[in-house]
Amino acid sequence: MTVEIRDIRGRGVVPGRAEGEALVSHQTISGWGGIDPATGTIIERRHELFGVCFTGKVLVFPGAKGSSGWSGFFQATRLLGTAPLAMVFTTLSTKSALGAVVTRVPTISELAEDPVEIIHTGDRVIVDADHGIVTVHSTSLSPSAGRRPA
């Protein structure tokens, strides 16, 4: 098994450091009507990760979609203990920034390279938002991009 280690630099949004398994979505995520805060599961029927739980994972996705209620739903995941371990997203918006702040998990955005294209579900990821660095430990056993996690 070959392990490739790669650093991607970006902008820390919420400070902190977390390490865990990546869960990657190529689609934006809706808060209101898109996630179940009680279970940390994506419930948007047409979403590529429909039925998948993000609790305790490093959630890697393009950004937030929908209304300003996005942040409230992600805050609820923190209050209910179902939040992602950390977040890495491509596009920083007021919705995604506020959502990250109220979720209180290490978050990085505006990366030098598109994390959705580089990181694969199952990769081991270190999110060091204090220094704006995402370290990706890819293995040959990681699922291919776009493949639904088991």
TrEMBL record:
<keyword id="KW-0456">Lyase</keyword>
<feature type="domain" description="Phosphomevalonate dehydratase small subunit-like">
    <location>
        <begin position="29"/>
        <end position="107"/>
    </location>
</feature>
<dbReference type="Pfam" id="PF01989">
    <property type="entry name" value="AcnX_swivel_put"/>
</dbReference>
<protein>
    <submittedName>
        <fullName>Aconitase with swiveling domain</fullName>
    </submittedName>
</protein>
<dbReference type="InterPro" id="IPR002840">
    <property type="entry name" value="PMDh-S-like_dom"/>
</dbReference>
